[in-house]
Specification:
It is a single chain. This protein is an alpha/beta fold. It has two domains: 9-137 and 178-306 and 422-436, Alkaline Phosphatase, subunit A; 309-412, 2-Layer Sandwich (Gyrase A, domain 2). Helices cover 33% and strands 19% of the residues. It has 19 helices and 18 strands. It has helices spanning 9-18, 41-48, 62-65, 85-92, 98-105, 119-128, 132-135, 174-177, 183-189, 206-211, 224-237, 252-260, 265-283, 288-291, 319-322, 345-355, 365-370, 382-386, 422-425, and strands at residues 74-80, 107-112, 141-144, 149-152, 157-158, 193-199, 217-221, 244-250, 294-300, 305-306, 312-314, 330-331, 335-338, 360-364, 391-395, 400-402, 415-416, 426-433. The strands form five sheets. It has a seven-stranded mixed beta sheet, sandwiched between helices. Helix 10 (206-211) links the parallel strand 6 and strand 7. Helix 11 runs parallel beside helix 13 (265-283) and helix 12 (252-260) packs antiparallel against helix 13 (265-283). The longest helix is centred in the middle third of the chain and has 19 residues, at 265-283. The two termini are 28 Å apart. The mean pLDDT is 93.
């Protein structure tokens, strides 16, 4: 992959869209773990520092980054939650977008997210350089068969019991779950420090401790204003010649699109104001000396798509589907992992074909593994296979599958992600040297 000839961004998008798998809709975008996915960002950051650590996948193609590596001492990764490439490209088309200048001075390419295109799986891939099969965070809700619990992997707590405590309270050991080293750990072994800037209330979470293991410092922020003050301080504190990786997370788009939906003035406004803050409060205020030898990478974990209420499928209204299941659906509301009762496979398939075919694609899990949706099947373990069910139900367009009745609370999200649509799967990669801006 690193030797792949240079491909213009438009052609790269076409190639990513052209990859298909049998039994899946033609418009689906498959993850490209071979070099054009978010799982390839971590090994690229290592290469920018002149490293090639073991255990990671390939880096992004060399033509994207190789001429930026001379004298690199600092890499700043700005991770935007739920900003799709199609959305970002449309946004920067407006000359008033603060991101437009950055895109003109740097390089903007599309990458794919991972499957499922959801936060816990995608962040794990970005922070480890592994596909979901390589790190084990295969979705938001997973059956942990060894522990005997359906777990929410964002909260790392039982999914069905509010107030039941964390998985660690049940004796679950995070070190046994994910053995893949984080990017911070790999850099640490080479004497390169990592400073993380994330939301203040994320700092103490178990998931943060897992994915950012090896980081020298975790610094929490409340708003954009203190975020950039903290990042400036981090860069100023770096001694000359001291290599440093700065990991910055911002989730404002994800929050807004969940509540208001996508492709509207709410999302446009949040993205514009963030870009203006990035430009004025961070880049414009950064001294020339601090810019030297520093590479900025802007990317996202996944995109998001509108999920109107009339496209929500409520499981209690479909007893023919519900009664064919051993367990509540795992995975995502837009990419459900189904555990089918013995002898009910044919009935379940017939029911989905008759009642839900316009909204969902049904695929046997083994076929999805063959298609490489979660990564290289050679990395599959017995425990990971148990987390994926018998079949998967993947939203074709705007649908979601919820276990709650229609009249019960918690069904109001207007935007979501997890499936394989271009809106969810294509994400931006914007890379530039700060001393060239």
């Amino acid at each position: 992959m690193e030797g792949r000839e240079a491909i213009p961004p438009g052609e790269m998008e076409c190639r990513l869209r052209s990859r298909h798998a049998p039994e899946l809709p033609a418009h689906f975008v498959l993850p490209d773990y071979g070099g054009l996915s978010i799982a390839n960002i971590a090994p690229t950051i290592a290469r920018l520092f002149g490293l090639k650590p073991d255990g990671h996948g390939p880096a992004l193609p060399q033509y994207i980054w190789s001429d930026l590596t001379e004298g690199v001492e600092c890499v700043v990764l700005l991770l935007l939650d739920a900003v799709g490439y199609l959305q970002f490209r449309q946004h920067i088309a407006a000359e008033t977008s603060p991101f437009s200048r950055l895109a003109r001075r740097g390089r903007l390419f599309p990458l794919t997210s991972v499957f499922p295109s959801t936060t816990v799986s995608a962040l794990s891939s970005i922070r480890t350089g592994r596909s979901p099969l390589g790190h084990g965070f295969l979705g938001t809700n997973l059956l942990l068969s060894h522990e005997g619990v359906l777990a929410n992997m964002l909260k790392l707590a039982p999914a069905a019991y509010t107030g039941a405590g964390s998985l660690e309270d049940w004796g679950w050991d995070p070190a046994d779950f994910m053995t893949a080293p984080s990017l911070a750990e790999s850099l640490e072994t080479a004497g390169i420090g990592t400073v993380v800037h994330t939301r203040r209330h994320f700092i103490a979470s178990t998931l943060t401790r897992i994915l950012l293991k090896g980081a020298d410092d975790l610094r929490g922020y409340l708003h954009l204003s203190d975020l950039w003050i903290n990042v400036h301080r981090t860069l100023r504190e770096r001694a000359p010649g001291q290599p440093l990786f700065v990991d910055v997370y911002w989730g404002g788009i994800d929050d807004t699109a969940h509540v208001y939906g996508t492709d509207n003035q709410y999302v446009d406004s949040v993205l514009f104001h963030f870009g203006r803050s990035l430009e004025q409060d961070f880049l414009a205020a950064l001294p020339t000396e601090t810019r030297k030898s520093t590479v900025l990478i802007v990317t996202a974990d996944h995109g998001q798509i509108a999920t109107p209420s009339d496209q929500v499928v409520h499981l209690p209204e479909h007893p023919g589907l519900r009664d064919s299941l051993l367990l509540p659906p795992a995975g995502e509301s837009r990419a459900a992992y189904l555990y089918v009762r013995p002898g009910r496979e044919r009935a379940l398939r017939a029911y989905v074909t008759k009642h839900l075919e316009e909204r969902f694609a049904l695929l046997e899990t083994d076929r999805a593994l063959e298609a490489g949706l979660w990564g290289d099947r050679d990395e599959l373990t017995i425990r990971n296979r148990a987390r994926l069910g018998n079949v998967i139900l993947v939203a074709k367009h705007n649908a979601r599958l919820l276990t709650r009745p229609k009249n019960e609370g918690g069904n109001s999200l207007c935007g979501h992600h997890g499936s394989l649509t271009p809106e969810e799967m294509l994400v931006p990669l914007l890379i530039a040297r700060l001393d060239q801006l």
